[in-house]
Amino acid sequence: MSVFLSVNVHATEDPMETVLQQLTRGNALFLILILGIGGSFQSGYHITALSSPSPFIQRFINNTWYERYTVPPAGHTVTIIWSLIVSMYAVGGIFGAVSVKCFSGLLGRKKAVICNSCIAIAAAGIMLTSKWAKSYEMIIVARILSGYSSALGMSTHLMYLGEISPRKIRGVVTVSSATFKSLGKLSAQFLGLSEILGCEELWNVVLCVPACLSVVQVLVMPYLPEAPRYLFIEKRDDKACKNALESLWGQGDFNQEMEEMLSEQATMEAVPAKSPLLLLRDRTVRWQLITMSTIYCCNQLSGMAMISTFAFDIFRSTGIPTDQIRYMTIGLGITEMITSISCGLLIEHAGRRPLFWGGYGIMSACWLFVTVVLNLKGSSSWAPYVTTVLIILFIIFFCGGPGGASGTLNSEIFIQSNRVAAFVLFGVQSWFVLAVLGLVFPILIDALDSYCFVIFACMCLLGCVYVFFFLPETKGKTLLEITDEFEAITICGNSFREENRLETKL
C-alpha cells in the first residue's frame, strides 16, 4: 500500500487530473474495473437481488412441494424453506471469509480472484437450473455458494486494491470497491423491475446475471499483473514486482517504491505472518483490531444493511404506497452509487477521520428524526415523504463516509504479515452480524415498530465518539507511520505498547 508512483506535479495542477494521469498510464484503471465487476459488485448484487423475486420463489416452493407430495405444504413450511434460502447466503459468507487466508496465501491474489469467479459461475449454474429441475434444495445450495463467493471476492478485491495502490491515490483506488458494491445493488434493483426481469418466468435468470461478469473476469485476469507487494514481499521476486509496477503505472523509476517494500519486508521478517488467532493475541495491533472491529460493527448495525435487505418492509411501514416502493428503492440505489463515487473524490482531500465521525454523527441524527416522524405518520400526510428524505440523507452520509472509507482504512492499518488474517477476522464478524440481523430485524420491527431505529442511532453515535477520540488520520502516511500512531494511543496513561514492553522484560 505504500507503493506509489513518483510523478512531478506542479502546485497549480488539479489533483484529480493527476489521479487520472496516474491511472491511465498503464493497465491500473482496467485492472480496477475487472476486479470490481467480479468482486464487490457481486456482493452488492446478491444482497438486494432476492428482494424482487421473493414472492415468485415462495410460490415456486409451494408448487414444488405440492407436485412432490400431492398435498399443500403447511403454512410454516414455506416460511422455513424461504428463511433458509435467505439466511444461507450469510452462512456461506462466513465460510468464504474464513477461506481468504487459504486462497490468497496458497494461490496468490490473481489466481484467488479467478478461482472465486469460477465458484460464482457454478453457483449461477445451479440457480439457473433449479427451476427446471423443480428443486428448492438447489436454490439453497446456490445461495450458499453465492455467499461464499461474495465474501471471498470482497476480501480478495480489497486486498488486491490495497496492494496495487500508490500511496498518494490509495484512498481513491480502494474506495472503488464501495462504488462497485453500490453499482451491484442498483443493477439488482433495476433488473428486478417487473418491466425487465422481475417476473415469474425469469426469477431464476435475474439471480444469475452477475455470472456473466464473472466469466469476463476469468477470461481477462490471466493477462493482467499480480499485486506487486505480494510478488516482492511474499514471493521475494523483485524482477516480477518491477514488471508488475511498470504494467500498472507505466514506465518510470521505482527505486523508492522498492525501498519502501524492502523496509516492510524487513519488518515482516521480525514479525512473521500470523493466523487469525495469533493476531487476536498480539498486543502490538490491539488498537487496530479494536478500531476496525468497532467500525465494522457500527457499519453493520447502523441500519444500512437493513435498508438494503428490508427496504420494502421499511417503506411500507412509513406509509409509502406499495406500487411506488420498488421505484423508491431504485432512487436509493442511484443515491448510493453517486455518493460512493463522490467519496472517492473527497477522501484524499478531507482525510479519513472527518468522513467517519462526521458521517456517523449525521446518520445518528437522521435515525432519531425518522423515529420522531414515524410517530407522527397517523396525523400528518407528509410524514412518509419526510421519512424518505431522511433515509436518503442517511445513505448519502453512510456511503460518503464510513461505508466508503472503511475498505481504505482496512488496507492501510495492517502490515503485509497481518493483513490476510485481519481480512479473515473482520469478514467473519461482518457476515455473522449480517446473518443475525437478517433473523432478528423482522422481529424487532414488529415488536418495537418505529423505536427499533433508536438502536441504529445509538450505534452510529458510538461510532462517532470512538472515531473522534481514537482513530488517527491515515491520509498520505506509510504503514509504519500509521502503526506508530496506533501504538502511541493511551488511556489513563497506559498503552498496549507499554504493556507489551513490560511483558517482554519479564
Q: Topology, please?
A:
Layout: H1 15-24, H2 28-38, H3 40-49, H4 54-69, H5 75-98, H6 100-133, H7 136-164, H8 170-174, H9 176-191, H10 203-206, H11 210-220, H12 228-234, H13 238-249, H14 255-270, H15 276-281, H16 286-300, H17 304-318, H18 322-350, H19 353-374, H20 383-399, H21 402-412, H22 416-448, H23 452-470, H24 479-487, H25 496-505
Task: Please describe the structure with a list of short key phrases separated by commas or semicolons.
506 residues, disordered C terminus
User: What number is the mean pLDDT?
Assistant: 80
- Evaluate the radius of gyration: 23 Å
Q: Treating each run of at least 4 consecutive H or I residues as one helix, how many helices?
A: 25
Order of helices and strands: HHHHHHHHHHHHHHHHHHHHHHHHH
**Main sheet, how many strands, which sense, barrel?**
none
Distance between the termini: 35 Å
Enumerate the spans where pLDDT stays under 50 for 5 or more consecutive residues: 1-13, 501-506
Proportion of beta-strand residues: under 5%
Secondary-structure-based class equals mainly alpha
How would you describe what is shown here?
The chain is mainly α and about 500 residues long. The protein contains 25 helices and no strands. The chain starts with 14 loop residues before the first helix and ends with a helix.
Task: Give a concise summary.
The chain has 506 residues and is mainly alpha-helical.
